Amino acid sequence: MTRYYLAIDIGASSGRHIVGWQEEGALRTEEVYRFKNGVTEADGHLTWDVGRLEREVRAGIDAALEKYPGLESLSIDTWGVDYVLLKEREPVLPCYAYRDSRTETAVPRVQGLLPFEELYARTGVQFQPFNTIYQLYADKLAGRLEGVTGWLMMPEYLMWRLCESAPPCGHEYTNASTTGLLNAATGEFDLEIIKRLGLPESLFGELCQPGTPLGEYKGIKVLLCPTHDTASAVEGIPMENGVEGTDQLFLSSGTWSLLGAKLPQAVTTPESRRANFSNEGGVGYIRYLKNIMGMWMANNLRAELCPGEDFPAIVRAAQESAYPGLVDVTAQRFMAPGSMSGEMSAALAESGFDAPKTCGDYFRCAYRSLAKCYGESVRELESLTGRKYATLYIVGGGAKNDFLNRLTEEETGLRVVALPIEATALGNLKCQIRAEEESQC
Ligand code: LRH
Question: Which family does it belong to (predicted)?
Fold first, then answer.
């Protein structure tokens, strides 16, 4: 009898419900529901409408059930770092989005208590102003932690809402590894960091691994997949198994570009800190990667300069342009600019380039700058891990951009294998199938 599973994969700009099943040894999938996601501006802040996300999750499950009435299990993955505070069973609203600027005062305060050199040596997580550690400290400064009895990362929250009677679950390891609060050596919350920041210790319990059951919704088992979308994406890439000696790299190319290697152990050296690499938790390995501003730039440029234009036409225009300027795609100025094209023009002017004139000029600059950053990151990875790499697997929406793939090949010198697959949903599904098989043993 064929068993059907449901992966709910929610990114910062869209969410999708994908049903998967095994057929003749292969994992087959069908997308049954898709919805738009995005931040909501409220009182000058960027927030997530968690009520709407929950409604979309439920509507998509109903759509899946209509076609596949006997779903075995489901699981949700989302972007990392964001969370919902709870007072008993009630969410504390608003739920802030990671691009909000509320951590501006928290970052120097945290660094005053815990110099970044020490924090990195303990956690191995690259500096990003939106890391959960800074967001939780911003909550503390704003008095938002008073009376709080728990907090759940976004996918944990959404799954908990489905299994109403269940107590809030523990934190899932892969997503917890994006908080900047895990100890890289133990893989558990680092209580020394939590004490030094004066965060309530009772909020940081033991972690749960992917595969852990949470409860049931409409007769479907709800369980933890690798709930950080990048962790699921890496599980969904058909890279060589094993982490020792492999010469393969991954690039999950969506709103963000996550470029890295699977490693057996974390690298927390000062060189790694200076190169701003992160050690995130994988399923039995470390995802050693760099978080690079990805399609976020191109998506914003399109919304500003040519809304409604399809990407193949945009990519052709970029290819035909001869614009020579490049920008640093990791610069914080591109995180949430008022205008992406304006910010790019300003950065280009500062490095002595004339302003781009056409749409094609802007996109050429964005794609070439991205590929250049990929090249630099691969060289850094080689020097930090002491390995030589041969192949780069690219998954996610960006894998469909042949021009960018070619530039990436030129800049990295690696063989690029671009896979137009929903790797995140595949990784989410694989973990559910594994959990089911293990429960049968
Ligand atoms: C990609 C991602 C990335 C995080 C960012 C907030 O979707 O999860 O790994 O750093 O979103």
Answer: Belongs to the FGGY kinase family.
